[in-house]
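Good morning,

Both structures are done.
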Amino acid sequence: MHSNPKNMAVSKPTILSIALLLVLGSSIFLNILLLGRAKQYYRELNQTRLDPLGLTNHPINAQPATNTKQTRVVFFGDSRAASWTSPNLGEYEFINRGIGSQTSVQAIERFAYHVSSLKPKIVIIQVGVNDLKTIPLFPESRNAIVANCQANIKRIVEESKNLGAVVIVTTIFPVGEVPLERKPFWSDDISRAIQEVNTYIATLAGDKVIVFDTFPILGDSQGKILPQYKRDELHFNVQGYEILNQNLLRILSIIRQKKIQSGL
C-alpha cells in the first residue's frame, strides 16, 4: 500500500496550523489570567492608598460586652484571620478584626484602633504571609522583609500582653500550589521565609503567650496545604477552619483551667 504524496502535503501544514492555534490560544488564555491578576493587584494597591490601615473595615469605637460572664476573644490579622469562623461556645464572645491583604505593619499600626478598645481577654494572631509573598518582587530586600515581619509580630504580641490579654500567636499558615497566573510573582523562597518566621514565632512562647503551631495540622509532608483543607493557594475552606477550631478548643480549655487554678 502506497501513501499519497498529496495527503502528506496537506497533513503537514494542517498539523502545523493546529499547533500554532494551540500556542496562540494558550498565550491568549495566559494573558487574560495575568491581566486579571494585575487588575486585582492594582485595585488592592489603590484601596490601600485610600485607606492605608483599613480603618473603615471595622468600627473604631469600643464595643461594650453584652454578657460580662463571657470571655472576649479577638481574632486579629490578615485575610486568614478574617476568614476564621469562630467556634460556637457560650462562655466566649468571639470578635473578628482580620482584614484581607494586610501586611504585619498595617496590622500593628491599626491595633490600637481595632483591638485595644475592645479590651479582649484573649487575642488570636495570624499575620505575615502578605509580607513574605512580596519577596519575589523585591529579592534584594528579602532579609529586611523577614526581619520586619518578625519584629511586627513581636510588637503585636507585646501590645496584646500590655492589654492584660492572653496571646495565642499562630505560626503563619502553609501555602499551596500556586496557579499559573501567579507563578511570575512567586518563588520557593516564600515557603522558606515562612519557615524562618515560624521558627522565630516559636521563641515568643512564654508567660501569657501560647504558640499555636498550625503546620502539623494544615500542611502535608512537603509543607503545602493539605488538599482537603485548601480553598486556594493562600486560603482555607470550612474544613480547614474546623480542624483549626478543634485544636483551638484544647488551647482555650488549658487557658480556662489555668485561670481557675489561679483564682482569677
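Second structure follows.
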Amino acid sequence: MDRQDEKSLTLLGNKGVKYPTDYDPTLLETFVNRHPERDYLVTLLCPEFTTLCPITSQPDFGKIVINYIPAERMVESKSLKLYLFSFRNHGDFHEDVVNVIMRDLIDLMQPRYIEVTGLFMPRGGISIHPFANWADADHQALAAERMAQAMNSIFAREN
C-alpha cells in the first residue's frame, strides 16, 4: 500500500470509530490492488452477520461469504466489517441483503468477478442460502459455471 492509499483510509487504525446503527454503504473504502496484472481470488467471511426481518423486526443470523477477483481497487476489511455491521438494525429479506451487498461492492470496486453467499440460520424450520454473482465481460463463463455449481450443490443436498 502506498502512502497516498494509506492517507485515504479513514477507518483502519482509527480507535475512535463509531459503530453504525443502520445500513450505510458510504462506510466502504478501497485501496489499490498491487497485482492487477493477474486474476486471483479474495475470500472474505463474516461468520456473525445479523440483520432484521423487514416484517417482524426479529433478528436473523447468518454467515456472509464474499469471493471476488479484484481489478484496480480492493475493499478495505475494517470498512467492510463496519458496513456489514450496519445491517444490524436494517430490515431486508435474506435474498435482498445478498444482492445489496454485491451491488454495493460492484459499485465500489468494479471487480472482475464477485459472488456473495448468505448462509442464514433456520427460522421456522427453514434455512435460506441465497447466492448472487456478477462478472465483467471477460469472466462471464466463470459466472455461469459458479451459478451452475451453486445450483448443483443445492440439488445434491436435496437428494
